[in-house]
Design brief:
- It is a single chain.
- It contains 26 helices and 24 strands.
- The strands form six sheets. A seven-stranded mixed β-sheet has the order 13-12-14-15-17-16-22, with helices on both faces. A six-stranded parallel β-sheet has the order 2-1-3-4-8-7, with helices on both faces.
- The model has no long low-confidence stretch (mean pLDDT 95).
- Its cofactor is thiamine diphosphate.
- It comes from Chryseobacterium hagamense.
- GO terms for molecular function: oxidoreductase activity, acting on the aldehyde or oxo group of donors, disulfide as acceptor.
- It holds the Pfam family Transketolase_C.
Length: 810
């Protein structure tokens, strides 16, 4: 079991002195990074800067209780902490400021995130997991205020789960559940709902979590008193304070940001509560200063009066730390011992400035060399074309006049030269074209890779295993198929767990998890409160720590509560770390056609457009859904699987190979062959399309019906285009609003698959009305496409081309 900071503090005075001076030095290095970073922005060498000056002392104290295996989920001002846990160097700090695309020089995001967004690399180059217990871990930061909080809950809960769950390889992720998850947030962001939902859930679940609130009294320029019901967040949270003997609530510790010994004590106590007793803790750090204001976008002198600015100068944490060091003395064996003299601290200050300047210089030169090498590889090839077009010399002249060159300037020069020499087949132009293609592939990888998994475990690599049926295969309700498949999953994968509203005790509202909690326990099959954002957050955090969570959102309509986390966090995890982290969460939900404004929605267009980076799977029945779960549990991509809400009581033949059969992602299925028109659909609407296709058959129109099955990825082998090539007509039928998913599908088929070449009629989309569906079956009939709508609109296509054979209906 890991020891805590309190248990390791019997040290000599010399060791104590060394620790203090190391902290002072690190604090000064961090401050100089902030100062120089701001100058680099204001002199035009970087675009934007946001820094952690003023927060050095509390972050140094927090770092002392941060152990190997622990995780941080924070926000973009924790540079001192990142330095203290060796997740950041001076060089990598400036590399990120310059947006250097080298993973080696900028390992947090390879230039994909603005400065101050920190991350450690959880994955090896091949996408396999590192031993996370052997390193200090930072889950990749995001900018949306409080957006990091739901993920924090899952990171903390994983420790609690690992106390009772083990599996092959679990030793890479936890040592008996002794890890703590640390969260950081600015005080103004505690006004966000994500903060309250996360803290509420943590207090209910009793997870080992420490949340630090950096309270500088402002949210950019808006004072705290205008942010919350009370200026003092600790006072507001007093109702969360746990009572002795109860397993609810949290501990609340308030401490001043400039009081070094009090900070050490506060974090030592916080660690003891969290690591030993699994009690969530809030550390409210007050009287924080922000010497350079919010960011390089403006000055805090615009909204802070002279009195406040004078106070901030006096109570700057590093100023107070220096005072404390100089005033500290102790008598040991009759001799007065001091920590340092003013001259010694001055020397440390000078050393910090030199260290930061040297690191900045190295980072800038490395970044510039990338561009210089690019120029040197391209410019001679462009110059070789000067004789082919008189404009090229002017392009080169404009390029050479640029004081500072970026990659885009090089690419613009090359593309202008290629455009000017179009039609030429000279050796010189071909050499430039070849070089352009070569450097374009490099930058495509730098800026556009890893939106989805690129490892051997990516979903596209999971082989299809078809369902096996025999004479003894039973006809059962669809919910029985998915339930029995889950049974095999939980037996086969001990790292898999599911949680959501009503998922545990009653086996979900549609009985798809019936009996699972009784069989596998309430750790793996768990009920949650009504809090969709943190249900998703639980999934993200757990998945980042090697578990395979299935986060259940009771209805598709309610997924909107967690869409922000899906879009800003989950969908970007692999992208924003360039393959350094992953979170293979499966989001289980149910929806589509049923009854009521909030139980029959199909907000698929929102999910598609806002969640690129998450697979979107839309099975037409529960057997297909079960197959997708089996597929995704072999993959390291995150996915949302939308079960058909009206399919749980419909009969399906249960496969004999439950838990084994898979449905491939990105593969369509032709469920009815035809020769006159291709009908493309998905989910619950498929049944109605099949009904319409049979009706069309009776009036002489042979319709081919295609179930998309997977919206992201979409028809990877372009089979739909082959169908259109045969039928020469295309209809996309969808229960989303006009211009929603149908527009996406149409774009994929016509533009990507080039199926427009085969059309004899305008492509047609049949979608729902733009309003939410009205209640009951009549509401569905008049709100969403019915079989009658489909038959009439498809028939009209044929009436237009051959009115004699297909006379108008009305």
């Amino acid at each position: 079991m890991q020891t805590t900071y309190i248990e390791t503090q019997q040290i000599s005075f010399q060791d104590f002195k060394n620790q203090i001076l190391e902290d002072y030095k690190l604090g000064r290095v961090s401050r100089e990074m902030s100062y120089l970073g701001r100058r680099e922005v204001l002199t035009g060498k970087a675009k934007f800067g946001i820094f952690g000056d003023g927060k050095e002392l509390p972050q140094l104290a927090m770092a002392k209780v941060f152990k190997d295996g622990d995780f941080r989920s924070g926000y973009y001002r924790d540079q001192t902490f990142a330095l203290a846990v060796d997740a950041l160097t001076v060089e990598s700090f400036f590399a990120q400021l310059y947006a250097d695309t080298s993973v080696e020089r900028e390992p947090a995001s390879a230039g994909r995130q603005m400065n101050g967004h920190f991350a450690t690399r959880s994955l090896n180059a091949d996408g396999s997991w590192k031993d996370l217990t052997a390193q200090k871990n930072i889950s990749s930061d995001i900018s949306p205020t409080a957006g990091q909080m739901p993920r924090l809950l899952g990171l903390a809960q994983a420790s609690k789960i690992y106390k009772s769950v083990t599996f092959e390889g679990s030793e890479k992720f936890s040592k008996g559940g002794n890890e703590v998850a640390f969260g950081t947030i600015g005080d103004a962001s505690t006004a966000e709902g994500h903060f309250w939902e996360t803290l509420n859930a943590a207090c209910a679940l009793q997870v080992p979590m420490i949340v630090s609130i950096w309270d500088d009294g402002y949210g950019i320029s808006v004072p705290t008193m205008k942010q919350r019901a009370k200026a003092d967040i600790a006072e507001m949270l007093s109702g969360f304070q746990r009572k002795e003997g109860e397993f609810q609530g949290c501990e609340i510790i308030q401490v001043k940001a400039w009081d070094y010994p009090a900070l050490l004590d506060a974090y030592a106590r916080a660690e003891q509560f969290a690591r030993v007793e699994s009690i969530p803790v809030v550390v409210h750090v007050i009287e924080v200063t922000q010497p350079q204001g919010h960011s390089t976008s403006g000055s805090h002198e615009r909204y802070k009066n002279e009195e406040r600015l004078a106070w901030e100068s006096q109570f700057d944490g590093l100023v107070k730390f220096r005072e404390w060091i100089l005033n500290y003395s102790i008598e040991i064996d009759g001799k007065e011992e001091v920590l340092a003299t003013a001259e010694e601290l001055d020397a440390i200050d000078d050393e910090a400035k030199k260290k930061v300047k040297a690191g900045q210089k190295t980072a800038w030169e490395s970044y510039q060399k990338t561009i210089t090498d690019l120029v040197q590889s391209v410019l001679p090839l462009v110059e070789n074309l000067k004789g082919q077009n008189s404009e090229i010399e002017g392009f080169i002249g404009q390029f050479n006049k640029l004081v500072s060159k970026a990659k885009k300037d090089v690419f613009q020069l090359v593309r202008k030269a290629l455009l000017a020499t179009r039609g030429s087949d000279s050796q010189e132009r071909n050499q430039l074209m070849q070089k352009y293609q070569e450097i374009f592939e490099v930058e495509k990888d730098n800026y556009s890779s890893h939106l989805y998994s690129q490892s051997q475990w990516k979903a596209e690599n999971v082989k299809e295993i078809r369902p096996v049926y025999s004479d003894g295969s039973e006809e059962v309700d669809g919910r029985v198929v998915v339930r029995n498949n889950f049974d095999r999953i939980f037996e086969k994968y001990p790292e898999t767990l599911v949680f959501g509203e009503d998922a545990g005790n009653i086996g979900d509202v549609n009985q798809g998890l019936e009996g699972m909690q009784e069989k596998y326990g309430d750790v793996r099959i768990a009920d949650t409160g009504i809090r969709e954002a943190t249900i998703l957050g639980q999934g993200i955090g757990m998945a980042m720590r090697g578990l395979r969570p299935i986060a259940e959102i009771q209805y598709l309509d309610y997924i909107l509560y967690c869409l922000q986390g899906m879009s800003d966090d989950l969908a970007t995890v692999q992208y924003r770390t360039k393959g350094g982290q992953k979170a293979p969460v499966i989001i289980r939900t149910r929806g589509h056609r049923l009854e009521g404004v909030w139980h029959s929605g199909s907000p698929m267009a929102g999910i598609l457009n806002l969640s690129k980076g998450i697979l979107v799977l839309v099975p037409r029945n529960l057997t297909k859904a079960a197959g997708f779960y089996n597929t995704m549990l072999q993959s390291d991509d995150p996915a949302v699987i939308v079960e058909c809400l009206n399919g749980y009581r419909l009969k399906e033949k249960q496969p004999d190979n439950l838990g084994e059969f898979t449905v491939p992602v990105g593969k369509i299925e032709v469920t009815k062959e035809g020769s006159d028109v291709t009908l493309v659909t998905y989910g619950s609407t498929w049944r109605i399309v099949m009904e319409a296709a049979e009706a069309l058959e009776k009036i002489g129109i042979s319709a081919e019906v295609i179930d998309v099955q997977s919206l992201i990825p979409f028809d990877l082998t372009h089979e739909i285009a082959e169908s259109v090539k045969k039928t020469n007509r295309l209809v996309v039928i969808d229960e989303d609003v006009e211009g929603g998913t149908s527009a996406f599908i149409l774009q994929q088929i016509l533009e990507k698959q080039k199926a427009f070449r085969y059309l004899d009629s305008d492509p047609l989309t049949i979608a729902a009305n733009d309003h939410r569906p009205a209640y009951a079956s009549d509401g569905d009939y008049f709100s969403k496409p019915s079989a009658d709508d489909m038959v009439e609109k498809i028939y009209a296509m044929f009436n237009e081309t051959n009115p004699q054979k297909y006379p108008a209906i009305s």
